[in-house]
Here is the input.
Amino acid sequence: MLKRGLPLLLVGLSVLAACGDKPDAKTPVTTASPALDDALALLPANAIMVGTVDARAFFGSETFGADLSKLIETYMPLGAEAGFTASKDVDRITFASYAYQGVDAAAVVVGRFDEAKIKQAVTAQTQTKGGGYLVASQYAGRDVYTLNNIGFTILSPTRVVAGTESGIRRVLERIKDNRVKRDIPQWMLETVESPGAAAAVAADFATQPIPPDVVQKYPVQFVKDMKGLRGLVSFKSPGMQIAGSLTYPDAASATANAEHVKSATSYLKLLSLVGVQVKGLDVKAEQSDVQVKLEIDDLTLRGVLAAVPQWIGPPPRSSAPPPAPAPAPAPAPPSK
Here is the structure.
C-alpha cells in the first residue's frame, strides 16, 4: 500500500512547521493505553520524529483537494481491486521515524479498510498499480503485506499499521507483549496534538542526534547544532500557513543560527521559477529557539501538485507476473 517514498512525502508535508514547549527528553509519558485506538500509544519509544497528517483537511481543500486526490491515486500501489481509495478511505496518518536498521518508519493509518478484498488481491497475485506484487507473511500472529521492504498490516477495519518492515514489527511486538502505552515525550505529544493543525511534527535531536553522514550529505549550517524541531501546518484563506520552531543549546546559538536560517530562506525565491509564491516570511530568534513563519497560497499549491509527476516521473509499471513455481518432475517410467 505504501511506496518507500510515501512515508518521506508525509514527513515532508509535516516537517515544514512548528510551535510548542521546548524539548524535555527526561519526561516521557507512560500513561497506560491498552486500546488499539490510540495511534500515539501504538508507536514505539525512542522516536527521532513524530508527526500527524489530517488527510481529510488536505483532501477536502476546495482549491487543491481534487488535484491532491488525483496525484495520490496515481502513485498509490493499491486501488479499487482491494476496495481502497486513499482520498476517500484515509482520515488521518500518525507516524514516527526510527534508527533501527538505517532509517525506519511506522505509521498508524485511520480510515476504512476491506481486509477480505485485500487478502483476495494478494492471494490472486493481483499486480499493484506500481507494477509489483504484494507478498504476505506472518509476524506476531498477524498478516503482514510487503512490497520492497515497505508494507502494512491490518489491525481492524479502521486501523492499519504501515511503514518499513522493522517499524511494523516493533508495533506488532508491543501489541503482542501488551506494551501499548504512550512512551513518547510530553512535548512531542503536545505538538502533534495541537488543535486545528492539518499537519504537525516534532523531532528530538537531543537524545537522537542527527547522524554525521546526514549532516555531511546536507551541509546546512543551522542543522548542525539543532536539538529539536516543532512544526504546524494549518489552512487559512487564502492558503496554507506554516510555522516552525528550531531549538538550540542556548540563546546565543539561536541568535547565530537565526542568521543562517535567513540566509537559507533566500533560496525560497528560486521557487518562484516553478510557480511557488512564498509570502509573509518571518525569521526571528526567541531565547533558545528560532521561529519561522511563512504562507503559501492555494493556487500555488495546485501548481506544485501539477508539476510533481514531472519531477518524480510516472509510477513504475511491469507486466511481468511473479515467477511461477517450478513444475514437479515427471515420474520415471517403471523399470522392465
Observations:
- Residues 9 and 223 are 20 Å apart (CA to CA).
